[in-house]
Fold this protein.
Amino acid sequence: MGGGVMLIFTLSAVYINGHEAKISTIGSGKYHILEMKGPILNSYKAVLLREGIKLYDYLYQNAFIIKASDKQISKISKFNFVKLIYPILP
C-alpha cells in the first residue's frame, strides 16, 4: 500500500486505518470529519467554536468529528489550518 489514508464511513462509526471512532448519536444536521494540516492547537478550536462548529470526538491523525451546516463548511474550508473536510454519509 502507498501509505495513504483509507476512510470508511458508516452510520454508527468511523474507521480510519482500522481505528474505530464512535459517533454517539446521529441527529439532524450534517456530520463531517475535519482534518487539520498539523497538530490541533487550542487557538484553532477556539476559531471553530466561534464559527458555531460543534466539535465531537478527536480522531487519529489531527482530525475531529464535527457538526456544521453547508454554509459553515464552505467558510471553514478556507481556513489555513484546515486540510480536508470529509462528509459522513449514512
Observations:
- Residues 23-28 have pLDDT under 50 and may be disordered.
- Residues 27-87 form a domain with the Alpha-Beta Plaits fold (CATH 3.30.70.80).
- Residues 3 and 62 are 16 Å apart (CA to CA).
